[in-house]
Design goal:
single chain; about 375 residues; Rossmann fold; binds 6-O-phosphono-beta-D-fructofuranose
């Protein structure tokens, strides 16, 4: 048998065409929805490899829900996705602007047109809640995604470790300029209503103070802490503040964006805190907003391991037709759970969480 004929035969065998199992051959769509997170490409690569190597067909849906509504797809081959796990962003594009309310029929018809047997979707709460409303019977496997680490039903979301790494590296780096100029450097992180990124990244960088939404801070106590440090002739400090953190009895800093899916857009608290520190303590201060650098960063090794396992499991669930399930991380292992378990209000930090206690024992103001 020539090499070419062997490969054709092998392909047909792998795809089930030669063994009378053609019906088991599947066409699986894969999409990424909502804001990007480091590791999305790892999910795409791991899930696609697993499916393709079993002889199935993988269709990449472009730009999240938009790709389904507008029938924009690309066929995925092993060659194309090889190595993308190391890159930030998403090979397929994403969108967090597509409105789905009232578009159930349109969505279901558009999905049927794709001819897919099932869909693997990596997304946040918005993606899955949206899908459950417009297509309750969709053959779907989900992978929870957000750098904020605030989804229910999973102990860790991929992208979180990378975001924490960006924060801790910023804290480490900014300590030098803080000390050189005898300043307080304020670092504003993402996270919406959950302080996981500020806490995880701030702790890993041994920030001097970490302010999170779950523990509204006392202005008086914070001022005393800063003044005490200054009296000790500490040269400079680094304070990490989560974007929705607030002082006791005050509101978080945000603007309302009419018509947006997330109409509340946090941001600006770092600048406000920095100015307040300078006015109240006389200690010169500057602020840095890490913003989307926390999302647009090559995934860490931990996130790569996690997405390799989550992506492969998502593909296995799809091959086993275990629809409406999600690949999650619980108690130190990647496992499956009903998709409904990752939907719900944000998973915020218990104010007495062990990481909070660790900060306190290390002398970090929290
Ligand atoms: O939910 C992830 C997140 O990165 C939040 O931490 C942040 O508030 C928000 O997305 C920013 O989203 P956008 O891409 O709309 O600026």
């Amino acid at each position: 048998m020539s090499r070419q004929i062997f490969y054709i035969f092998f392909y047909r065998l792998a795809s089930g065409k030669e063994t009378g199992q053609y019906k088991t051959h599947m066409k699986i769509g894969i999409m990424t929805g909502g804001g990007d997170a480091p590791g999305l490409n790892g999910i795409i690569e791991a899930a696609s490899r697993t499916l393709l190597l079993q002889g199935h067909e993988v269709v990449g849906i472009l730009d999240g829900f938009e790709g389904i509504f507008e029938n924009r797809t690309r066929n995925i081959t092993l060659q194309e996705i090889h190595g993308i796990h190391a890159q930030a962003g998403t090979f397929l594009g994403t969108s967090n602007r597509t409105k789905v309310e009232g578009r159930a029929e349109e969505f279901q018809a558009a999905f049927a047109k794709l001819g897919c047997d099932g869909l693997i979707a990596a997304g946040g709460d918005g993606t899955f809640i949206g899908l459950s409303k417009i297509a309750p019977n969709l053959p779907i496997v989900g992978v929870p995604k957000t750098i904020d680490n605030d989804l229910q039903g999973t102990d860790i979301t991929f992208g979180f470790d990378t975001a924490c790494t960006v924060v801790s590296e910023a804290v480490d780096a900014l300590r030098y300029t803080a000390e050189a100029h005898r300043r307080v450097m304020v670092v504003e992180t993402m996270g919406r209503t959950a302080g996981w990124i500020a806490l995880g990244g701030g702790l890993a960088g041994y920030a001097d103070a970490i302010l999170i939404p779950e523990r509204p801070f006392s202005r008086e106590k914070l001022k005393n802490f800063l003044v005490e440090k200054r009296n000790l002739k500490i040269k400079g400090l680094v304070v990490v503040i989560s974007e929705a953190a607030k002082a006791l009895n005050e509101e978080a800093t945000y603007e309302t964006v009419e018509g947006a899916i997330h109409s509340i857009r946090y941001g600006g608290v770092g600048e406000r805190l920095s100015k307040w520190i300078e006015t109240e303590t006389g200690w010169e201060s500057r602020y840095v907003v890490l913003g989307h650098l926390q999302r647009s960063h090559a995934p860490t090794t931990t996130d790569r391991f996690l997405t390799a396992s989550l992506g492969a499991l998502a593909a296995q669930l799809a091959m086993a037709k275990k629809w409406k399930m999600a690949a999650v991380y619980r108690n130190g292992i990647v496992t499956s759970a009903p998709l409904t378990e990752i939907q719900g209000p944000p998973r915020t930090i218990d104010p007495d969480h062990r990481w909070v206690k660790l900060c306190q024992s290390l002398g970090i103001y929290i």
